[in-house]
Amino acid sequence: MDFVSIRIITADVARLVEFYERATGTRAVWATEEFAEIEMPTATLAIAGARTVGLFAPGSARPADNQSVITEFLVDDVDLVHRNLREFVGEFVTEPTTMPWGNRSLLLRDPDGNLVNFFTPVTPAAVEKFARRTTRRLVSEG
Predict the structure, then answer these.
(1) Exposed (0-12), middle (13-18) or buried (19+): which is 140, by Cβ within 10 Å?
(2) pLDDT digit string (tens) for 6-38?
(3) Can you list the domains of the chain with their CATH numbers?
(4) Dihedral sign (CA 134, 140, 141, 142)
């Protein structure tokens, strides 16, 4: 089994897509006005309008109502990401901080209030952990 994507339901697809394009440096691929995907090497961030919820199960998801999920992005330099987003992000929950498990993390909220964590492994153990994941992915793709 492979984890393929996470989907964020929003009332303003264009606004959220613009945010994630800028935050990740990756252009979205639009399927319709109500659905776009930001494809990354290991997974896809899908952004869909509230009207798409009815296609699955009406009322099962609500925009801007997340209080439990943090979407995370592994980056080369979390401090650089912070500098690049400083003028663009409305709320930083935490400035870049080195966590006890070895990642330097930047926690912020996207325009819908969803938590987003950008992180860089900085201790030898954290660097090794993510190097193993990258190696496994490359071997399985090759």
Answers:
(1) exposed
(2) 999 999 999 999 999 999 999 999 999 999 999
(3) 1-58 (3.30.720.120), 66-142 (3.10.180.10)
(4) positive
